[in-house]
């Protein structure tokens, strides 16, 4: 299998095409489910790309939608086959946010608002280890080590020599003051943020305490955008037991406007660097 085939993205594109065929036929997901003797939730999961889809599923759906062009059927069947392949992250076992990793791996740009900690793509190993252990105190050491390795592997997207992920991060000032690991870990972490923020495709802004109530007061979220026009933008909201993916244009637009407000309320790039640099020096003492 070619290394540039992302199973998560293939599932998503396949689901979008199946939804389009259903809508062209003028059928609801409930009607399709009744025809195939399956649950409506299965049809919904197939269309939103959150569930692996078999070639048999594609064949049955194309039959319901009366797709006569065999080339279309063959193309969808191949997408289903590709979508069942495994991405690099599957080598680490069961990862709760594997859907997100698949999207991040294929994204062209990523905007993140992080109110509590330094965002994962900018974390050093010691900081990541402290975050994972603190956030999952009942998990085994082996599971925590796996999560750290996955997080560090994800960072290859921002260090790639060709087509690196364009990253814009708004960090709440609280993330800079929260001592994770130790003061030495924090010093090294903030110095790492400063170093990465010098890269042309990475922008870091700090939302200062003095702003008070702001557009991101409800918590962390990310906006992923893709180079292929066929792939709609996605808002990702991380949860403890489940994650939320928003793809409807209205929802994406609302979070995009919120992010613009956050950027406007934050310190500019140079002011942010000076604050991070000052705090890094304070952690050295």
Automatic annotation (TrEMBL):
Q: Which PROSITE patterns match?
A: HTH_CROC1 (PS50943)
Instruction: Give the source species.
Output: Streptomyces althioticus subsp. attaecolombicae
What is the protein named?
Helix-turn-helix transcriptional regulator
Which residue intervals define the domain HTH cro/C1-type in the entry?
Answer: 18-72
Q: Which domain of life is it from?
A: Bacteria
């Amino acid at each position: 299998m070619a290394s540039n085939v992302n199973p998560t993205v293939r599932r998503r594109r396949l689901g979008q095409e199946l939804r389009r065929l259903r809508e062209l036929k003028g059928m609801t997901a409930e009607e399709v489910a009744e025809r195939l003797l399956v649950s409506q939730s299965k049809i919904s999961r197939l269309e939103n790309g959150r569930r692996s889809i078999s070639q048999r599923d594609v064949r049955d759906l194309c039959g319901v939608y009366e797709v006569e062009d065999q080339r279309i059927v063959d193309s969808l069947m191949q997408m289903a086959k590709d979508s069942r392949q495994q991405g690099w992250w599957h080598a680490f076992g069961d990862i709760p946010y594997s859907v997100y990793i698949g999207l991040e791996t294929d994204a062209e740009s990523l905007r993140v608002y992080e109110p509590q900690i330094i965002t994962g793509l900018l974390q050093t190993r010691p900081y990541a280890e402290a975050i994972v252990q603190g956030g999952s105190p009942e998990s085994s050491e082996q599971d925590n080590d796996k999560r750290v390795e996955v997080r560090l592997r994800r960072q290859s997207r921002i260090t790639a020599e060709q087509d690196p992920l364009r990253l814009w991060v708004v960090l709440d000032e609280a993330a800079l003051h929260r001592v994770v690991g130790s003061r030495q870990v924090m010093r090294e972490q903030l110095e790492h943020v400063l170093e990465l923020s010098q890269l042309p495709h990475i922008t870091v802004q700090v939302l200062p305490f003095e702003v008070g109530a702001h557009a991101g007061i409800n918590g962390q979220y990310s906006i992923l955008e893709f180079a292929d026009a066929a792939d709609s933008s996605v808002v990702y909201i991380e949860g403890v037991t489940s994650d939320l993916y928003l793809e409807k244009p209205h929802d994406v637009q609302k979070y995009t406007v919120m992010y613009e407000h956050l950027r406007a309320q934050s310190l500019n790039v140079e002011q942010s660097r000076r604050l991070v640099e000052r705090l890094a020096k304070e952690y050295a003492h």
